[in-house]
Structure formats: structure tokens, C-alpha cells
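Comment thread on ticket #2218

A.B. wrote:
> Attaching the input chain for the structure job we discussed in standup.
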Amino acid sequence: MGKRLLINGVIICWAIAAGVFVSLKPWQVYQKQSEDAKQRVREMRAAENHRDDLLRTEARLQSSIGREEQARKAGYLKPGETASDPEKK
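C.D. wrote:
> Ran it. Output below, let me know if you need it in another format.
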């Protein structure tokens, strides 16, 4: 009975080792895909933040205050203003 128990123990150890060996590759693939997904999420969030910034900038530039700022940067003055007048805020 001792010899048979030893053989069963060796078979079980080999089966466990084979199972671990076979499962290594799927775990490596999972880790790589998980890192890729996290990177894509970071890129997507950065793109969304950039888009939000652009939308805010566009909204500010299309407002009356934004248009006035742009006109003043281009050198336009209000009627009755001269270039030496300090800028009113």
C-alpha cells in the first residue's frame, strides 16, 4: 500500500505542476490586456479633458466678452476711445 500511495502522490504533484504550467500563459495575456485597457482609459480621459477645455474656450470666445477681448487684442477700440486710454475692466 505504501508504494501505491507514493505513486499517487507523485501523479498528483505532476498534475498540479502541469496545471500551474498550463495556466501561466493565460494569466500573462490577462495582465497585458488589463494594462492595455488601463492605458486606453487614461488616453480617453485625457482626450475628454482636452475636448472639455476646447469647448470652454470656444464658449468663452463666442461670448460677447470673448469677442471684445479678441477685438481689443487685434487693436480695435470702442467709439470715442483713443489708443492712449487705459483699458477699462
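A.B. wrote:
> Thanks. Noting for the ticket: The CA atoms of residues 20 and 57 lie 55 Å apart.
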